[in-house]
Amino acid sequence: MPQRQRYLFVRILEACNADCFMCEFALSRDTFRFSRQDFAELLPEAVAAGVRYVRFTGGEPLMHPEVVALVRDGTAAGMRMSLITNGSLLPRTAPALAEAGLAQVIVSLDGSSAATHDVYRRSPGMFDSGLRGLRECAALGVLPRVNTVVGPHNYTQMPELQRVLTEAGVRQWELSALKLERSIRYPDPAHVRAVCDPLYAADPDTLLVPMGKRFYGDTPQEQERYFADSQTPRASEPLCHVVDDVIYIDGKHGRSYACSCLPHREGSEGPGGAPLREHGAIRLDTPVFREHADHFRTQGPRSCAGCSTTAAGYSDDIARLGTAAPWRY
Questions:
Q1: Percent of the chain scored above 90 by pLDDT?
Q2: Exposure winner among 130, 148, 157, 242, fewest CB in 10 A?
Q3: CA distance readout (Å), 12 to 28, 240, 281, 305
Q4: Cβ count near 86 (within 10 Å)
């Protein structure tokens, strides 16, 4: 079986112009920027590591003054380029991004209308800008995707959001559970299932169906852990296959991780992942990185507490099928 092509995530800045209540980067004015020189040094290592897909994250990547040039550089190196954005700056940057070769755009939308989404994000106009940017990107040939954070505050809006996104021509949709430093409680788990199960059972020829696992779990055991303990669904045992296919780079702190969901901040117990540089040079797939990945390959399905629905679903697809469709992570 041919080797799977890998995903590289690069957090190119930590600044953001949104004030989302669940996000550590809300209204950050951090001055770090991952430079074109850094990316030029990183790209040959990524090619050698089997990377085919590159996604820029933040913060808000469209605040990076060289984001278009970075997309162009990655495309020139043979990468399929992607970025995740709150959408506020997307309508005016979409043409330049498409011309530079952007292959996929992911917009974060959490409400079914401006009346709700803009309140959650505490940013007036963001819902309309996000939808307008998605439509513009789709018209320019850029694959449009939406990521939605779901919790007790908004799960009842998901059927309407499904309709809105379908009508807007969105092609992919991720629903991931709200994660906070406290337990998340739903008054009636049965109502969550009644509202949201039909989202996943919809006819994909007529409605946009979410990717990956249900945000509250596919199995009775996963759902019990989610509703009782706030444990999001994770890769099924015995192995997490995401760590074989993903490299996540925290540019500011110079660390690399084997999954985009792993904690990527310096913690009180010391840095996680692996150093991005050895003797001053960028290196991927080092022995330290492989040790880190090997640990989560075996321990992740039993210990990870913050998995995303697409990561869990991707791993299970690999376990079951040996492959996964492009952009399913």
A1: 84
A2: 157
A3: 14, 26, 18, 25
A4: 26
Quick check: 20 pLDDT over 80?
A: no
d(CA 67, CA 51): 19
List 63's β-bridge partners, or say none: none
Instruction: Give CA 50 to chain center in angstroms.
Output: 20
Contact predicate 33/272, CB 8 Å: no
Partners of residue 146 on adjacent β-strands: 107, 173
pLDDT digits (tens, 9 = 90+) for 148-180: 999 999 999 999 999 999 999 999 999 999 988
Q: For the segment 195-216, what is each residue's pLDDT rounded down to a tens digit?
A: 999 999 999 999 999 999 999 9
Mind spelling out the 3-state secondary structure of 239-298?
A: CCCHHHCEEEEECCCCEEECCCCCCCCCECCECCCEECEECCEECCCCHHHHHHHHHHHH
Query: pTM (2 decimals)?
Result: 0.95
Q: Residue 126: which H helix or E strand, with range?
A: helix 126-139
Cis-peptide into 59, omega within 30 deg = yes
